[in-house]
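Attaching the record inline, Q. Sequence:
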Amino acid sequence: MIMGAHALRTAGERDLARVWAYARQDGVFDSLDDLRRAWSNAPWTVQVSDAGDAAILGRWRDHLPLVAVTALWSVERSIPSHMAALRAVVRAQGFEDLISPFVAEGQDGPYQKAGMHVVHTGVTLGLVHRREVERHDASDIEIQVADEGVLEPLLAVDILCFSDFWRYDVRLMREFLSADRVTVARRGGAVVGYAMCRVDRGHGVIGRLAVVPAERGRGVGAALLSDALRYLCRQGVHRTVLYTQAENEAAQRLYARFGFEPVGPRKHLLAFSNIDTERGSGCCT
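Structure, as predicted:
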């Protein structure tokens, strides 16, 4: 364990301005007030060292006893000890395991040195908008902008489409409904899929695309994706990115049809225990 200046401790209020300087640059919080609110609700989720290291922790999913490292600012040599210290912090709070931040493939050595191992691999895809996005319509499908009135149907779609590890809980779904543009695809009034997108620091982000198994292969995903991309173009973005599982070939074929290409190295999530990230998984994005 790291002793002295680099040892992590729970942040005090006077530490928050320093943490905010990191968080603002990386888009972790929208404002210092948001950081202060998170710290006030759970001070242990903000860890700092006297040498300038900092880490942000957050509940992964409310239905799982896992905590994720949302962000870590540290020199590489300190990462193994920081992971061990953060694991102790989350266990003291009653959680079972710690999930690493997304780590570029080839840069996960310090996490493995801490005793963590890869539980997920994903890819980032990017699209440069060189022309107007073609509209895609699916037969008998209506695309609508969503609000909290469709919270329960969205959660039901997630259960059908994603593993327990990836599906959203009520808290997260409400956050995305508030912060992102969420659209639903309806057939005969029933929600059969949805998409999430947003503008983040000048570029577009596709945060989620899900279609229930019975509707796949019928153009619903293409309709949702084209609607999201057309919206992002109207916001003036020239580049859109998304993240998906490395083994999700069906989703990657859909994105390739729209011009998405791999961007940068693959990303890993690591954990100390043998977490099954795919149990109950469908093949959505």
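The chain has two domains: 4-99, 130-237. The chain is about 30% helix and 30% strand.

More tomorrow.
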